[in-house]
Design goal:
The chain is of the alpha+beta class. 25% of the residues lie in helices and 14% in strands. It has a three-stranded mixed β-sheet with strand order 1-2-3, with no helix packed on it. A hairpin with a 5-residue loop joins strand 2 and strand 3 (68-71). The longest helix is centred in the last third of the chain and has 20 residues, at 78-97.
Length: 111
């Protein structure tokens, strides 16, 4: 055996650990919105489906005003989502109230 590629051919590709894992992909520069099949500009272009609950993607987005941004769908178990919403609400409300004061915000992670 000379490489990891040799190992994967002989033993098969190993599964990655799913416990406490999250895969993040950035498809903002993939050009999905620029694909033209002959019937006009795409209304949406991007991944249709992924490994639900395990992965998420940065996806380009334009709102009704034409302003460009990035959407990051997040799928969490119910209890974790409730905690995430409370934490994010606290961060966003604090920033809206204290625009003149720039405070450092720390988000802890168990990664």
């Amino acid at each position: 055996m000379k490489s990891v590629a040799d190992l994967m051919v002989t033993k098969g590709r190993p599964n990655f650990t799913m416990v406490r894992s999250c895969l993040v992909s950035d498809v903002t520069r993939a050009g999905f919105g620029d694909v033209d099949f002959g019937w006009g500009k795409a209304a949406y272009g991007g991944p249709a489906k992924g490994a639900v609950g395990v992965s998420t993607k940065f996806i380009p987005f334009k709102n009704k005003k034409g302003e460009a941004g990035i959407v990051l769908p997040i799928i969490l178990p119910t209890q974790a989502m409730e905690i995430f919403v409370k934490e994010l609400d606290g961060i966003l409300k604090e920033k809206q109230i204290d625009k003149s004061e720039r405070k450092s915000i720390s988000i802890s992670s168990s990664l």
